[in-house]
């Protein structure tokens, strides 16, 4: 798969550092352009069209984020644009007329979503400051900090105070060039929010952002070249999106073969799953007796009506609770006076894996930690989430360090070493399991949840242990090919 985002970054990196275009003497020098912009700025201030802003000092060499050609110049963004923010939404301010307005939720990278616009009152003085017109660059102060787009419409619009409006001081300045700079800076963590609690990209920081200034002709050439790449990159994105959809369909077909016992051949010499299950039951009883897991209410035998399809004779249908002991996690706020322990959160479950590097420490009592601990081979499930599709998603813990987990998650504690957790995780991503999960999900106040009882009664096919391992090896091989 081609990483088009990385490719875009490389193209724009070369472009905004002057390595994608040739410099021509006839383009002139950016210092001349800068002086021209400052003269225009003084004129606009004198005419009362813009407000005088505090002059920023020249950009020092230690502030340069990368090298640029000799005929370019490092400047502050506020040197090039007249900068304003919008109006704060205030229910007590009822002066002026009602107008539509946009906020950060309407601004996306290089485009706007204008459905369901709200209104608030603006006085004539506020309209002058808070109105955007065609060609203005808008930058988000909050939300996805730094997200930017150029207003492309022939009609004007008002903005709320969490948006910055940048209007070029010189008509010939290329605003799209500075849109690309904002995108590149954001992708490379060169802009971010500051502050305690809600973070924001303040007016001072926007105004003082250090940016390159090429001659006008080169700005135009740079933008033209970047835009020539965009259709090709979009075509690659579309093709890869279609490939991803086809790949997911193919994965499900492969999983369907696996759960039916048709992915790898059966070996008559394998110990049948019925014998394996008897051993697992004995190990589970031992763990209950030792107080390591709680005794759970025994589920009734699986009936013929519950079985969705036939499986090989050497396999057995089992409940999930036959293999795992389920338990909720600890409150993410922690315990006063407890010791610090690593606690897994929803944010640590990314791209189908558990990211142990991002796990945070939370104060817990020893009892809480010991009774809510994930060990190697256990499965972690999402118990509650705003996205219905994510509820009951399975993640295998392969780390060696014992960690705890928050109350947005379930843990399936493995009750025996006589089955392969990787096999169970694969099977849990099959449509066969999802069909059982869907009716068990409850939705309240926008949150989707599933409880332990519902999880425990889900039925899955259990092959002999040797065949489980052969299935896992084959799935690893086929999935590896699909990822190429």
Structure description:
With 484 residues, this protein is α+β, with helices and mostly antiparallel strands. The chain has two domains: 4-233, DNA methylase specificity domains (Adenine-n6-DNA-methyltransferase TaqI, Chain A, domain 2), CATH 3.90.220; 260-483, Adenine-n6-DNA-methyltransferase TaqI, Chain A, domain 2 (Alpha-Beta Complex). It contains 13 helices and 26 strands. The chain has helices spanning 4-16, 30-46, 77-80, 124-130, 175-187, 203-207, 216-259, 273-289, 366-371, 421-428, 431-437, 452-456, 465-483; strands spanning 73-76, 81-85, 97-102, 107-108, 111-112, 118-122, 131-132, 137-140, 148-150, 157-159, 163-168, 210-213, 316-319, 324-328, 339-344, 349-350, 353-354, 360-364, 379-382, 384-385, 394-396, 404-405, 409-414, 442-444, 447-449, 459-462. The chain has a four-stranded antiparallel beta sheet. It has a four-stranded mixed beta sheet with strand order 6-3-10-7. Strands 14-23-19-21 form a four-stranded antiparallel beta sheet. Strand 4 (107-108) and strand 5 (111-112) form a beta hairpin. It is elongated. The termini are close together. The model is unreliable at 194-198 (pLDDT under 50).
């Amino acid at each position: 798969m081609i990483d088009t985002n990385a490719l875009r970054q490389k193209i724009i990196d070369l472009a905004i550092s002057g390595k994608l275009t040739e410099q021509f003497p006839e383009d002139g020098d950016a210092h001349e352009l800068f002086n021209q912009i400052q003269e225009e700025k003084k004129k606009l201030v004198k005419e009362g069209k813009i407000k005088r802003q505090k002059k920023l000092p020249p950009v020092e060499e230690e502030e340069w984020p990368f090298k640029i050609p000799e005929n370019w110049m490092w400047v502050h963004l506020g040197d090039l644009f007249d900068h304003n923010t919008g109006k704060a939404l205030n229910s007590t301010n009822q002066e002026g007329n009602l107008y539509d307005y946009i906020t950060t939720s309407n601004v996306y990278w290089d485009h706007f979503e204008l459905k369901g616009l709200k209104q608030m009152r603006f006085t004539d003085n506020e309209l002058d400051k808070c109105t955007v017109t065609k060609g203005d660059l808008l930058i988000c102060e909050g939300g996805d900090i730094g997200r930017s787009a150029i207003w492309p419409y022939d009609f004007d619009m008002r903005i709320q105070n969490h948006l910055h409006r940048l209007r070029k001081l010189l008509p010939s300045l290329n605003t799209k060039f500075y849109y690309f700079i904002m995108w590149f800076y954001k992708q490379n963590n060169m802009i971010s929010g500051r502050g305690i609690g809600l973070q924001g990209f303040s007016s001072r920081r926007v105004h003082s952002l250090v940016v390159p200034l090429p001659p006008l002709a080169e700005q135009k050439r740079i933008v033209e070249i970047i835009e020539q790449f965009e259709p090709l990159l979009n075509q690659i994105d579309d093709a890869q999106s279609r490939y991803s959809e086809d790949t997911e369909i193919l994965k499900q077909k492969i999983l369907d073969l696996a759960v039916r016992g048709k992915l790898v051949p059966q070996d008559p010499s394998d110990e049948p799953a019925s014998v394996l299950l008897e051993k697992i039951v004995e190990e589970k009883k031992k763990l209950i007796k030792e107080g390591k897991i709680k005794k759970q209410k025994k589920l009734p035998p699986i009936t013929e009506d519950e079985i969705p399809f036939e499986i090989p004779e050497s396999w057995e249908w089992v409940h999930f609770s036959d293999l795992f002991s389920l338990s909720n996690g600890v409150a993410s706020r922690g315990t006063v006076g407890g010791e610090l322990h690593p606690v897994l959160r929803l944010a640590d479950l990314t791209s189908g894996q558990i990211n142990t590097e991002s796990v945070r420490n939370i104060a817990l009592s020893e009892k809480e930690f010991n009774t809510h601990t994930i060990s190697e081979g256990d499965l972690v499930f999402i118990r509650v989430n705003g996205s219905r599709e994510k509820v009951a998603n399975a993640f295998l813990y392969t780390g060696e360090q014992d960690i705890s987990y928050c109350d947005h998650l379930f843990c399936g504690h493995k009750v025996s070493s006589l089955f392969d957790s990787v096999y169970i995780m694969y099977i849990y991503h099959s449509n066969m399991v999802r069909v059982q999960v869907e009716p068990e999900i409850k939705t309240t106040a926008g949150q989707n949840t599933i409880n332990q009882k519902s999880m425990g009664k889900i039925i899955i096919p259990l092959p002999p242990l040797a065949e489980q391992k052969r299935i896992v090896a084959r799935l690893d091989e086929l999935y590896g090919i699909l990822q190429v």
